[in-house]
Design brief:
The chain has nine helices and two strands; from the N terminus they run αααααααβααβ. By secondary structure, the chain is an all-alpha fold. The longest helix has 28 residues.
Length: about 220
């Protein structure tokens, strides 16, 4: 794959001209961007990331190469935009996990249920995510960009874990960032099992058994006062 111009941080679409676009033009660009991302996800899942070409993506989305390169500098940048779209949606959902949690009959079980419901069961996305991770291991530029994305997600999950402990009147006995890493590692292990043995394991099969034990082990009642 020749296109390896991945940015060192999460990419944004190529900058617009100096003059701000009209609202109608902004909406058109937004629709184009979403269609390119949706088309790319389908093509990557079917053909594999490296085998898929810009032409394949444009054909699936119904656009020309010009439309692609007006939004992205490379295929790597497009895939990282897919990551960001997926993760921003997840983080936004995570922010709602704690609403009214203190009023639930069993806050721990309610939190676990919300956590498990947040992760995607979309096999196409899981395949693309696994393939790009392997690609990044072999290509330093992509690895740097993917690592930046991972740090971005880890920062937000760490902050949310601290917030959840406070709202539930708990104290974390494990560093929140370490706990975030454990949660992501357990999730990734479950994803790998579900991809290799989909008839035997669901994406959240491992987490359903581990999370109640983990939550009990890493939290303690907050001290009075």
């Amino acid at each position: 794959m020749q296109e390896r111009e991945a940015a060192s941080a999460l990419p944004a679409p190529v900058a617009a001209p100096v003059s701000a676009p009209a609202p109608r033009e902004k909406r058109r660009r937004s629709v184009t961007l979403e269609r390119l991302l949706d088309g790319a996800l389908q093509v990557f899942a079917e053909m594999g990331y490296q085998a898929a070409s810009v032409e394949d993506i444009c054909s699936r989305a119904g656009f020309t190469r010009g439309a692609f390169y007006s939004s992205f500098r490379s295929k790597d940048e497009l895939l990282l935009a897919l990551y960001r779209r997926r993760t921003e949606s997840l983080v936004a959902e995570v922010g709602t996990w704690f609403e009214g949690l203190e009023h639930e009959p069993d806050p721990d079980q309610a939190l676990i249920a919300r956590y498990l419901g947040a992760f995607t069961h979309d096999r196409a996305w899981l395949l693309v995510e696994a393939e790009f991770t392997l690609y990044a291991m072999r290509h330093p530029d992509a690895a740097q960009a993917l690592a930046a994305h991972s740090e971005w997600l880890l920062d937000r999950l760490t902050a949310l874990l601290g917030e959840s402990a406070d709202r539930l009147g708990r104290t974390l006995v494990l560093d929140p960032r370490d706990l975030a890493r454990v949660l992501l590692a357990v999730h990734q292990g479950g994803v790998n099992e579900s991809l290799l043995q989909p008839d035997r394991f669901s994406v959240t099969d491992l987490e359903q058994r581990i999370l109640p034990l983990l939550l009990s082990a890493v939290t303690a009642p907050a001290p009075d006062g």
